[in-house]
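Dear support,

I submitted the protein below through the web form. The confirmation email said the job was done, but the results page showed an empty box. After a refresh the structure appeared. I'm attaching both so you can tell me whether what I see now is the final result or a partial one.
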Amino acid sequence: MAKSQKLKVLVPRAEIRRKVREIARRITRDFRGEHVHLVGVLKGACVFLSDLIREIDLEVSVDFMAVASYGRERNSSGQVKLIKDLDSSIEGMNVILVEDILDTGLTLDYLRRILEERRPKTLRIAALLDKPSRRIVPDIRGDYVGISIPNQFVVGYGLDFGERYRNLKDICALVPEPELNEHGHPKHTP
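What the results page shows now:
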């Protein structure tokens, strides 16, 4: 039987809104008077990207890529594969790769290499969340990062666990409930 999940608010919606606005202001300042092309990483970054784009005071275009590395597990498989590519060329454009969370760095390293081969004018990374304690690829860093979080599995605001919880307005830590014995008491594990 699957364990039930308990949610604990880690980043409340007011803080998320504040950080999205801060990131948008920095992007607007850094690219003043230029066009930026946001590339959202599906599916997790869709909520962050939709809020971010409305706060950027520049000419903006959008495209999406999708990769798979987690499936229905809490840990990345370590294998990243592209399942949806860009719809158009990014050559000569100011590209910002928009991700929900910068975790191991494997996904962003993979996408960064693919995008750099396509010769954008600039390539930057925006991530709402950063989990530096899990970084495997040390040279992956976000240019625009909202919130550094501890090594907890998080859901909400686009992030999911087995396609659940994406619609939560807050970012929550997913905490497994203890298994109970036949008397309703927590089981003791050796």
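Response: this is the final, complete result; the empty box was a page-load delay. The chain is about 20% helix and 30% strand.
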